């Protein structure tokens, strides 16, 4: 048998293998991700391994550290590159600190791109004792006297936002101008003040049964009044408006608001789900979807800190303020003014004196400005409550609220003497 062709074939194969080895020797070896990608391109049918190749980011779940800094295992080249970048950035940062002093940067607030308009040149030296323009720009706009500063004591409590408290409540007081109400009952041909009082009394029960925040109740009453001031309704849908306002307020204030079915249940299934959802849309459209309405309860808690009022005094002021929700005559009062009047009458009933300079500074109201409102609140408390409106009185007659509803009133002469 002739074996010459077979030997020639073997020689050709050996020659090809030698040429392939020589070619591979000239090509630098690839490792890590690049080699993996090349192999994947050459062999598209090869399946991707479950484990990531060495040096590549590992797979992670959503919302985990997107940098994968703790999961990456960089090789020596990557470590060297990171060190070089860190060293370079440190050198640049040191040079920048030496050249520019951040405290001396002059910000141009009139330009939108403030960060791009920062003047890097050093300002001219100012005489001793005079603050430079840059130093004045970083200071707070509102300078609170030391005797009236009630926020620095709570710097450790970030929930109180002590750095922004003055700005927040200043903003809320400006918002009051937009939500001033007047007595709208003359526009409602099928309603009267007693019907509104019964509705608010029912809303107080809802707030207590669902254990909702007090801010939710105050906001729900505000939403109801604002809607009734713009829309003429019939008495059949009055409770629907109240329950829908509670739903909107819960969505704004509560961590876990009740569902629609719960609110339909407390209405004794008098309305359908579609009706409540349609009413929610109507209320929001009537308020132009602006439901950030300042409420008296928020101001009351802050003003009570001015005199370091105890829980009994604060709860008594809350009782007076919640009683005022039932009365139509108080819907035109600003939230900050109403909170100040309720706190003042609580201080008088507790024998803790009257208004002081710290309260006048934070509230912006003097005793003479509060006197007419306090006298009206006193007359409200002196009147016997109706048998149909017992929710607030029963609520604050409980030991949980220190039975403040049973607090005896002072004489009218003592009240006037304190106000004078």
UniProtKB/TrEMBL annotation:
Region (Disordered): 1-60
Known function: Essential for the control of the cell cycle at the G2/M (mitosis) transition.
PANTHER family found in the cross-reference section: CYCLINS (PTHR10177)
Pfam families in UniProt: Cyclin_C (PF02984), Cyclin_N (PF00134)
Family indicated by similarity: Belongs to the cyclin family. Cyclin AB subfamily.
Annotated Cyclin C-terminal domain residues: 294-410
Protein name as it appears in the record: Cyclin B3
InterPro entries, per the entry: Cyclin, Cyclin-like_dom, Cyclin-like_sf, Cyclin_A/B-like, Cyclin_C-dom, Cyclin_N
Bias kind Basic and acidic residues: ranges: 1-15
MF annotations from Gene Ontology: cyclin-dependent protein serine/threonine kinase regulator activity
SUPFAM superfamilies: Cyclin-like
Domain called Cyclin-like: residue spans: 201-285, 298-379
SMART domains xref list: CYCLIN, Cyclin_C
GO biological process: cell division; mitotic cell cycle phase transition
Alphabetically ordered keywords of this record: Cell cycle, Cell division, Cyclin
Source organism per UniProt: Paramormyrops kingsleyae
Matching CDD domains: CYCLIN_CCNB3_rpt1, CYCLIN_CCNB3_rpt2
